[in-house]
Design goal:
28% strand; Lipocalin; binds protoporphyrin IX containing FE; single chain; two-stranded antiparallel ribbon; 13 strands; Fumarate Reductase Cytochrome B subunit; alpha+beta
Length: 374
Amino acid sequence: MPIRNTKERWGSVAKFFHWTIVLLIIGQFVLAFMADSLPVGMQKLAVLARHKSFGITILALAALRLMWRAANRSPVMPSTMAPWERLGARAAHALLYALLFAVPLAGWTMSSAKNFPVSWFGLFQLPDLVAPSESTFETLHEVHEILAFTLGAVAILHMLAALKHHFIDRDTVLRRMLPFVRVPGVCAVLLVGGLALQGDGLAATPGNATGSAASGTLQFRFSQAGAATVGSFGKFEVTMTTAADGTPTALAVTVATDSLDTKDKDRDTALRSSDLFDVKQFPRATFTADSIRRTAGGSFEAIGKLTIRGVTRDVTLPFTLAASAGGTAPGRLLAGELPLKRLDYGIGQGEWRSTEMVGDAVTVLYSVTLTAAR
Ligand code: HEM
Ligand code: HEM
């Protein structure tokens, strides 16, 4: 697992900091509640001493984490995220970082005010931050409590957002922060990089390969007044997971429906409206497949679920994979066509249900270069 972050994912150090701090914070709440239920005495002191030592550990880890973050790029947010979602994510992350400092500092200062100097696991003693004072202690006690519960509440919202990314948006945001997810090592990239140029490029890199509108096209062909018409989506993301030998094992596609473009403003407005794609209510279309089989002709079929306009259907998506040496990095060209019926997904309410002027049959055409997430 790479140590440093890349544009696509978090490196092992960032993951280590994130998840160690999460575990320690859960531990902090458990210890605090244990201490609260104990009568004044040795046991309570021992539990609180542990709470303080772990709390100071969190403070130190938070400082190291921010230093590491400053020396590293952070992965980019998926292009399918709306501006308010990006803003919300940034604000929540900034608040979490601020609280990772504020909560332990309030605890430390509170202990000084109570004249309970803080020791780190009995190994060394920390300096007092303020002179003892009962009223300062009382205020800081309140502050520590309020800040700790704010941290808990923001962390829960943050967790729900991460789960939404995974289960509703079906993007890679949660997966790229999870530990133990295999990503290609530099050796694997070097070893198989040459092989990728042979045959159909199957011997590519293990792990995840990603592509987006920047490296390909996603189009839809439909008939309008009897004429074949092509539109495209300007924002989409494709993630293909591969086994160690390069065989694809899973595929995930997210499309921002608002990014549709048929080169006609009025038609695009109609397509975005509630009678057709209803982009306000259904900003994303997704395809996810956890099963991929090889067909007789050497192509592939991804067996999964396609969700458009809130309707999910089982779909078998055919595609071919070929080595592609274009661009800055060698990649694999995933391409194919998927025939659909728009009315199966409710694309056509009211007058648009009629297939007289706009046919029911739509062909989705995709051609995108995937590069290994390094
Ligand atoms: C991120 C780290 C921390 C978290 C999440 C946390 C959380 C909490 C919570 C939820 C309580 C119970 C609030 C109450 O009912 O009083 C508590 C109490 C306490 N915390 Fe922390 N804490 C952290 C760090 C620290 C640190 C670094 C110190 C001291 C060095 C500290 C000292 C205390 C003390 C002494 C109490 C008990 C106050 C009392 O009831 O007498 N905490 N903490
Ligand atoms: C006390 C608990 C938690 C704290 C303090 C916390 C804090 C943070 C912070 C500060 C970041 C931003 C990282 C950066 O930009 O440098 C982050 C990212 C992240 N966290 Fe947490 N987190 C907590 C719990 C969780 C939980 C329970 C989950 C999942 C279920 C989670 C999932 C994520 C994910 C997926 C990211 C990456 C977001 C991205 O790739 O843009 N976190 N966390």
